Recover the amino acids of this structure.
């Protein structure tokens, strides 16, 4: 559960039923990671941005599915259209989240860069499980966040 003003990742699916899986801890770490991973291409020097760069370039982890996200709050029809364009196939998202989690845990350089976010691998694995659940139902997934 997130309280008012809490940073959280929201995972929605197009499945006919609600996903029984949820994050077992604070999902803010994923929000910070994907935000910094997105800004990494613009030269951001934050440790999470550096970790994302290492994952992408040195380890070949495709972070693209994790970088398909939007602000959950919409204030215009343009933002609403953008939000609708965020639906994606679940299987690539599951693979991306799982590979990122494994790489963070198994690579000392990345583990060091993400040390201030010790639960990030576990949250990524939980996200992968949610995406796997959606993929098993041929459902799409959408990632949004609240800050």
């Amino acid at each position: 559960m997130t309280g008012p003003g809490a940073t959280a990742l929201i995972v929605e699916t197009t499945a006919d039923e609600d996903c029984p899986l949820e994050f077992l801890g604070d999902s803010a770490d994923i929000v910070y990671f994907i935000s910094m991973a997105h800004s990494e291409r613009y030269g951001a020097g934050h440790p999470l941005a550096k970790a994302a760069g290492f994952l992408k370039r040195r380890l070949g982890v495709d972070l693209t599915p994790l970088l398909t996200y939007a602000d959950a709050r919409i204030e215009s029809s343009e933002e609403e259209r953008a939000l609708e364009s965020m639906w994606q196939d679940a299987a690539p998202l599951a693979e991306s989240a799982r590979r990122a989690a494994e790489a963070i845990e198994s690579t000392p350089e990345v583990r060091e860069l993400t040390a201030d976010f010790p639960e990030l691998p576990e949250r990524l694995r939980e996200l992968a499980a949610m995406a796997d659940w959606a993929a098993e139902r041929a459902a799409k997934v959408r990632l949004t966040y609240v800050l």
